[in-house]
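The following block was generated as part of the benchmark described in Methods. Ligand: adenosine-5'-triphosphate.
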Amino acid sequence: MTQPSSPTVSPDTADNTPRADTAIRLRGLYQAFGADAVALAGVDLDIPAGSFFTLLGPSGCGKTSLLRVIAGLDTPDAGTLHIGARDVTRVAAHKRNVNTVFQSYALFGHLDVAGNIGFGLRMHGHDRATINDRVQKTAAFIQIDNLLGRRIDQLSGGQRQRVALARALVNEPDVLLLDEPLSALDAGLRSRLQLELLRIQRRLGMTFVFVTHDQDEAMVMSDYVAVLNEGRIEQVGTPATLYERPANPFVARFMGHANLFAIRARDATGLTTDFGRLAGEFARADHVLIRPEIMTIHAADAPEVASAGDNVIHGRVRERLYRGSRMEYTVAAGETELVVVDDNRGQGMFEIGAGVALVMETTGVVTLDG
Amino acid sequence: MTQPSSPTVSPDTADNTPRADTAIRLRGLYQAFGADAVALAGVDLDIPAGSFFTLLGPSGCGKTSLLRVIAGLDTPDAGTLHIGARDVTRVAAHKRNVNTVFQSYALFGHLDVAGNIGFGLRMHGHDRATINDRVQKTAAFIQIDNLLGRRIDQLSGGQRQRVALARALVNEPDVLLLDEPLSALDAGLRSRLQLELLRIQRRLGMTFVFVTHDQDEAMVMSDYVAVLNEGRIEQVGTPATLYERPANPFVARFMGHANLFAIRARDATGLTTDFGRLAGEFARADHVLIRPEIMTIHAADAPEVASAGDNVIHGRVRERLYRGSRMEYTVAAGETELVVVDDNRGQGMFEIGAGVALVMETTGVVTLDG
Amino acid sequence: MADAGSGKTGWRATGHLLGLVAPGVIWIVVFLVAPAAYLMSIAFMTNGSYGLPELPFTWAAFKQLAGYGFLGWSPANLYVVGRTLVQTVLATGLVVVIAYPVAYYISRAPARLRPLMLLLVVVPSWTNQVIRAIGWMNILAPGTPLSDLAAALGLISPHMGLYPSQFAVALGLVYNFLPFMVLPLYAVFERLDTAQIDAARDLGAGVWGAFRHGVLPQTLPGLLAGTVLVAIPAFGMYVIPELLGGGKNLMLGSLVARQFAAASNWPFGAAAALIMILATLAGLVVLRRLGRRLGGDAGVML
Amino acid sequence: MKRASTLTLGLRGMWYALLVLLYAPLAVVVVYSFNSVNSSADFVGVSLRWYRALFADDTILAAAWNSAVLALVSSMLATAIGTALGYGMYAHRARRLGWLIWLIYLPIIMPDIVYGIAQLSFFSRLAAATQIFDLGLGTMIIAHVSFQAPFVALLVYSRLVGLDPRLFDACSDLYANAWQRARFFILPTLQPAIVAGFFLALTLSIDDFVISYFTSGPESVTLPIFIWSAIKRGISPEINAIATLMIGTVLAAAAITLAFQYVRHRQSGE
Amino acid sequence: AGKADTLYLFSWSQYMDPALIKAFEKRYDVDVVQNYYESMPEMFAKLQAGGAQQYDVIVPSNYYVPRLIDTGLIQALDKSKLGHLDNIAERFADPAYDSHNSYTVPYQWGDTGIAYNTDKLPDAPDSWAILFDPAINSDYPFALATDAQVVFGAACAWLGKPYDCTGRDAWKAAAREVLATKARDNFAAFNDGTPVLRQLARGNVAAGMTFNGDFTYYKSENPEAFKNIEFVVPKEGTELWVDVMAIPAKAPHPDLAHKFIDFLLEAKNGAQLSNHTYYASPNAAARPYLDDALTHPPAQPTPEQMKALHYIPSLSGDDLQFVQQLWTEVQSR
Ligand SMILES: Nc1ncnc2c1ncn2[C@@H]1O[C@H](COP(=O)(O)OP(=O)(O)OP(=O)(O)O)[C@@H](O)[C@H]1O
Ligand SMILES: Nc1ncnc2c1ncn2[C@@H]1O[C@H](COP(=O)(O)OP(=O)(O)OP(=O)(O)O)[C@@H](O)[C@H]1O
Ligand SMILES: NCCCCN
Ligand SMILES: [Mg+2]
Ligand SMILES: [Mg+2]
C-alpha cells in the first residue's frame, strides 16, 4: 500500500492544486454483516485534501460499504475515521460535513429541483432567503438554473445527475462522496458527464471520493485510485502507477492487462514463461506482465524481426478484431496466447492463421509478485 | 449505395466462405406508421448469403422496422422482399423460414429452456422424439445442454441470450435476424458474447442479419455493414470501407470520426479548413476527414516537426485523457479542435496548455461530399 | 429511530417497531382475531334450547353440518355447498370471459382515455352493494321488458319474473365483481411484452398458438389475482343471494346468517362459518400455489 | 395490424355492451325514482313525490348522517392506523414479520358474513358483560377500521417498497434528523398513498353492508341498512330516490377524481 | 336530540300511529327511536344478540312470550307503574302465554290470512288452496311467510289437520307439503306478512300470507293500487295472534318503558292506535272511541271464522329444535 507523494495529472489552474493535508484518514476499518459477509476487512487509507480520489474494485468488494462508513450511514464494527482533524467515527450522518451523490441519485420525487437542492440547507434551519440565494448560485454554477421549477420525473438522466450533484455541493461539504454516479447511464452521456464532473472538481478544489468498478473511468478521471478487493486495499496510486506498475496480479488483471504470465524459471540471462523465453535482466518475481503497447507485430519473415535481437516471440494469428483505428490480434505462442494491438496506419493486415513475430521492448516489461 | 463485391474479412475455414448468391433481396421497401412516421423510406438492399450482415444506425432510423418486415411480423406498404429465390412479401411470419433473436430475447416464461428451444419445432408439428433430439443437439452446440431443465428466470443475461439463439437456430432458418441482442448487457459480457456470436455464425455459415446502434460492435463483428438513417440506407460496405472511406459526413460522424471539417476553399496546392491549410492534391469535395491515427503529436519544437514538411498543424493542448495504453489529446488549432491519440510507448506526455505540433500523413486524409 | 434501510436491531428499534405497528396489530387482534376465535369456539358448544351456545363442548354442530339431525341423514347442506360452489365457479368464469377482452381493450386504448375507461368500470362499485342489487331487482322483476322477453322466449314461465331466481343471483354476482377482475387484468395487459407474441409467430405459431403462448402465460398472474379477488368473496357473498334469490335456495352465507339472524342456532352457524373460513383459506392456498407454479412473481398475488 | 380490425370492432362492441351492463341497473334506479306510481312494470309519469317523502323522513336523514359519520370517522382512523402499520412493516422488513402479513390478509379474505357475525357475537357478549361495547355507531366504526386499516397498510407498504432505499440515506446525508426525516420526506412522499388509502377506506366503508348490519344498534341505522330493511319491507320508489342520491354523489366523486387525474397528468407534462 | 331521555321501541313495521309517538314525546319531553322487524324469529335473534340491553319496549306475539320469559330476555312488569291496567279486556287479562300479565300487556290482536290478486286469480276460494293447490294458481308468482311455525300451521290446515298441529309426524308432513310447493315453477319467494302486501301492489306476486289489519290499512291508504287485492281467512283454519308489549331484561330506560306502556293503555290512545292500524284492540275502555271499521271483518272476524282461529303453540326444547331444523332443511333444498 504505497501512498504517492504527488499527483501525475496536474490540475487545471494553479490555485486548485490539491492541498498537502489529509481530508480523510481511515485506520483499521472493519465491517461485517453476519459471520461470513465481511465487507471491510481492515482498511487503512489517507485521502489527500482537494484530490479526485477513486475507489475501484469489482462488485461486492466493499466500495459502497466504505463510502457509507465515511458518510456516517453505517457505523464500522472496528477502526477509526477522521475527517480533517476530527474523529467522526461515532458521529451521526446528519452531523457530518460530508455529502453523497447516490448511485441512482436518490432525488426526492415530492420536491422540485429547487426543493431538492435546498433540502440540506432547510434541514440546517437556514432562512428562506439564504436558501433561495445559495440554491440559485449553485444551480447556476452547475448550469441547471433553468430547471429549478421542474419536477424530478421531467428530467433526463444527465440532468438528474447534475441535480444530485448540486444538492450535495450546495452544502459546501468538506468531502463529496460519489457512489457510481455514472453507472446507470449510456456510454455517450457517460463520457460527457465524466468530463463535466472532473471539471467541476477542478474548479472547486474540493475533495471528491468517487466509486466505480470501471477501470477506464477510474483512469480517465482520478488523481489517485485505490483498488479494493474483498474488503482490502490492494494498491493506492496514480492511474499511471496502477497501469504501469501494478503491485500484484489482481491489480494487473483488473487494470485490463491480458498478457500476464507466471514465471516458470529465472536465470541470469532471462526468464522462462508459458509462451517461451524472455531475455534480459529481471528482478526476482512470480509474474511477468507484457502490455500490448510494448509489442509490435510483424510478418514472421519481416526484416525488422531479424534485426530485433533476442526478444521476439513467434506465433500464429488466432483471432483478430477490427476496431477502426486499430486491429486487435490474439496470437498463439508456446502454450498460451498473447494479445497485441496494431494501429491501422496504412500497413497491411495479418490473416487468421498467418505466422507472425512479436517484437518487444524489454524495458517495458514489468515483473510482479503475488 | 455501393454494394461490395467481396468481403475483406475472410472467414475462419474455407468451406464457410460466404456463398456468392443473395440470401435476401429488398426492393423499394416503404413503411409508414401514420403520415409523419416514415420508418422505411424506400430501401434497396442485397444481403449476401452466408454473411454476417449488420444494420447500423441511430435510434429510430428504421432498423427494427426493416427487420420486422424481413421476419414477416409487419407487411410493408410498398416494395418487395425475396428470401432466396422466393417472393415472400405477402407470406405470413409463421410460414417463412426466417427466425429472430429479439432484443430482450422474448423468452417464454411459462416454458423451461428445453420448451423454449423446442417451441418452433412443436409449432411445426414435429414429433416429440425429433424435437428432443434436435433441441439436445442445438443446446450442445451452443453449450447450454446443462441448462435444459431450468426456468427462464433462473438464467443470467448471457445464458438467456444463448437460449434465445438456440431457440432460433434449432429451426435451421435460411436467415437469422438479431435485433440488438446485446444492447441490454454490461460491457464485459457484451464483448464476450460478440465473439461467441461471431464464431457460431462462422461455424454454421448461415446468413445473420444483425441490428445494432453501436458502431464499435458493428465493426468488430460484421462482414458487411449497412448504415441507415431516417429510413434510408446511407452506405453499404465492409467495416474497413465504412471506416476509411465513408460516403458522406453522416456515415463519417456515425463511425466515430471527430475530425471532420468543412472545406472552405480549394486550389491546386491544397485546401483551406477551419484549422488552417492542408497541402496536397485533393479531389473536389465538401469535407475533409482526418482520422486521429494518421497524425502524430510532437512538441512544437521537436526535430521531427521541422523535417515533416508542409502538413504540420500547430496548436495547444486543451484537454487530455489518460486511457492506460494511450493518451487522448484535444488540441486547439485555428478556429477549431482536433482529437489526436498517442500511444503510451514510454515517451513523455504533454501538459495541458502546452504548444504542440500535429504531423500528418496526407495519404490518409479522406475527402467526402454531402 | 431505526434506520429504514438497515437490518440492525436493538431495543430502540423494537420500541420504534411497536410504536408503529402496535395500534394496527392490537386493533385487528382484539376486534377481529378475538371475535373470530370466539365464534370458532361457539362452533364446539352445545345449542341451548333457544339457539344460544352453552357448555359443554360437543361436536353436535358439526354433526348437524354433516347432515345428521332429527331427521337422520339429509343431503340439504350438500345442496347448499354445491349451490354455492356452482354459483362461485359460474360467476368467476363469466367474469373472466367478460373482463379479459375488456381489460385488453382498455390497455390498447389511447393513454389519455385509459384512466377514464378504468374509472367507468370501477364507479358502479363505489355505490353500496345493496343499491346495485336494487337496480337488478327493478330490471328483472315480473312484468318488466326483460322478464317478458324471457317469458316469450320460453326461458321462464309466463307471468314470472327473472327475479327472484338463481339466474338473478348469478347476474348480480357477475355485476358486483366484474371490476375486481378487470383491474388486475388491465395491470398485466398494460405491461404485456408484445415481443413474445412476435416470437411465437416468428417460430411458426398461428393465431391460437400466439395467444396460447404469447399472451395467456403473461396474463396468468393477473388472472389469478383477479380470481382471488372474485371467487373468494363470491363464495362468501350474502347480500346478493339474499336479495336476488328470494330466500328459497340458500347459499352458504345465508345459511350462516340465518342461524344468527332468524333460525337461532349459533353453534351450527358458527360451525358453518368455520367451514367457510377453511374453504376460503384452502382456495387461497391453492391459487397461490398455482400462481407460483405458473411463474407469477409473488408480489402479484394477495 | 391491418387485419386486426374485426377484432378491434368486436372489442369495441363488447366495451359498449359492458357499459350498458354496468350502468343500466343504476340508470333504472334513477329513472324509477321519478316514477309517479309504485311499480317496476309501468312508468306512468314523472314526479318528485318520493324525494319529498324522503326529505320529510327524519329516519332517512339520520341514516344519511350516520353513514357519513361512519365512513369519515372510520376512514380517518383507519388511515392513521394503517399508515403507521404499513410504515412499520417496511421500516422493519429485515425482521421476521411474515406473521404480520397474515394478520393483514385475514380481514381481507374473511367472508363478510363470518366477519360480521363474529363481531356481532363477540360484541354482544362483551356488551352483556361490560356494558361498554353496546352495538351502535361505535362498534360499527371499530369493525370498519379493522377491515379498512389492512388495505391502507398494504397501499402504504407497496409505495414504500417501490422507493429507492437510498432516499432514506439521502435524508440523513443531508442533515435531517429522525423527526425532520418523517416530516420533510416520509410524510410528503407517502402523501399520495395516504390519500389513496383514505379514499379506498371510504369506498370500502360505503360499499359495506353486511358488517355494518351485524354490528349496528338501534340508533346507528345507516343508509344501506335503512335501504335493506326497506327492501325487506317491499321495494318502493322512495328507496330508488335514496339510491339515486347516493349514485349522484358517487358520480360527482368520480368526476372530481378524473379531473384530478387529468390535472396531475398535465402537470407532470408530456 | 336535546331531549331528557330516549325510548327505544322495537316493533313490527307498520304498527304504530306516528301521532301517538309525537304525543308521547311531547308529554314526557323525550325522544322515541323506533326499529322494526318483520317476523318473530328476526326479533328474537336481535334480542339475543345484544338487543336485550338496547331496547326499552318490544312487541312480540303471543307464542314467543314463553320463550322470552324462559330465556330471561324480558323483565317482569312493575304493575305499580301501570295505572291503566284495568282497561284491558277480560279476555286478555290472564292469557295462557303469560298468566296474570306478569310480563306483558296486550297491544293488539288479529289474524293471518291470504291476500291475493282478484284479476289474476278470479276463482280463488277462501282456502289455503290459493297457495298450496296448483290447480288454483298454476302460473302466477306467489309467496309464503318466513316464520316456520306460521307456514307449517298453514300446511297442516291445508292437509286437513288443525292449524295448531304439533308432533313430529305432523310437522314432517307439513314440511313435505311446503317443499313440494316451493318446487313449483311459480313459487316466487318467502316474504313476510307486511312486505308481501307491497309486492302484491307492485304485481311481483299474485298471492301471499298477510295480516288482516295491515291489509285493511294499505287498502284504505291506497285504494287505487289495492283495488284488485282481496283478503280471505282460510276456512281450514288459521292463526289468531295477540301482540303484546314487554320490557327487555336489561332495557336502558325501564321507567320510561312503563310510562310508554301505560300511555298506550289509556282508553283514547288505545283507540287511536287501532283506528290507525285497523287491528282489533284488547283495550275494553277504548271501545267507545273505535271507528266503525273495527267492528266488522276483516278487523273483527265473524263468529264463524273465530271458530277456525288458533293460537300458534309455544315451543321449546327438542320440539323447537326439530321445527327449526326442518325449516332450514326446507330452505336449503
Ligand atoms: N446490509 C447488508 N447486509 C448483508 N451483507 C451486506 C450488506 N451490505 C453489504 N453487504 C455485503 O458486503 C459486501 C460488500 O458490499 P458493498 O455493497 O460494499 O460492495 P460494492 O463494492 O459496493 O459492490 P457493487 O459494485 O456491487 O456496488 C458484499 O459481499 C455484500 O454482499
Ligand atoms: N408501431 C409503430 N407506430 C408508430 N410509429 C412507429 C411504430 N414502429 C416504429 N415507428 C416509428 O418508425 C421509426 C423507426 O422505428 P424503428 O423501431 O424501426 O427504429 P429503430 O432503428 O429500431 O430504433 P431503435 O434503435 O430505437 O430500436 C421511428 O420513428 C418510430 O417512431
Ligand atoms: N304490521 C304488523 C303485523 C303484526 C303481526 N303480528
Ligand atoms: Mg456498491
Ligand atoms: Mg429497434
